[in-house]
Amino acid sequence: MRLWSLHPRYLDTKGLLACWRESLLAQKVLDGKTSGYRNHPQLQRFRATNDPLAAVGTYLEGVAREADARGYNFNRALILCPPAPDLVALLPVTTGQLEYERGHLLRKLAVRDPEIEAILAVADPLELHPAFRAVPGDIESWERP
């Protein structure tokens, strides 16, 4: 499971679809509807909020908006706790984590989509998923490099 802190615009089609599916799985786990992935480290940041389902709902909405921008139709009815119309950056993410994710995604895009890889390689500053706000720091403790 990879729930990117980077803006979904940096994902290729395969990555965007996978992000949607994995985010829906995360929502299912946080809602207690599956026994698999319950201890997945990426879920720690959602669980650290006052309302994990609202946080993952905000995350899913950000992914769905990128899908809209590309002409895809992701089923928002699957989002259990849709966010308010204006997405709010609820979740902190460290700058070290963002740089780690950039490198990780660049390696994937080098193989799958060099055009998007070139965009991400020169992005400065990095645009974050709308659910996140950057804070100084190293790679997140839940990351498994």
Give a description of the structure.
There is one protein chain. Helix content is 46%, strand content 6%. With 145 residues, the chain is mainly α. It has one domain (8-135). The protein has a two-stranded parallel ribbon. Helix 1 packs antiparallel against helix 3.
Structural class: mainly alpha
What is the general shape? globular
Mean pLDDT level: 92
Based on CA atoms alone, the radius of gyration comes out at 14 Å
For the record, give the distance between the C-alpha atoms at the N and C termini, rounded to a whole number: 13 Å
**Main beta sheet, described?**
2 strands, parallel
User: Can you give the helix content as a percent range?
Assistant: 40-55%
Task: Report the strand count.
Answer: 2
Task: Give me the number of helical elements.
Answer: 5
Kindly give the count of domains: 1
Write a concise keyword list for the protein shown above.
mainly alpha
Outline of this structure?
With 145 residues, the protein is mainly alpha-helical. It has five helices and two strands.
Outline the fold blueprint.
Elements: H1 13-30, H2 44-47, H3 52-69, E1 91-94, H4 95-112, H5 114-122, E2 132-135
Parallel strand pairs: 1-2
